[in-house]
Amino acid sequence: MDDFDVKPILESLIFISESPIRPETLIEILPESNKESILEGIRRIQTEYEGDSKGMELVEVAEGYQFRTKTKWAEWVHRLRKPKIVKLSRSALETLAIVAYRQPVIRSEIEEIRGVDSGWILRTLLEKSLIKIMGRKDIVGRPIVYGTTKTFLELFGLNKLSDLPTLKEIQPPTTLEEMPKEEIFKGEREGATLTEIISVNEGEE
Question: What residues have CB less than 8 Å from 73, skipping those under 6 apart?
Answer without folding.
Answer: 55, 191
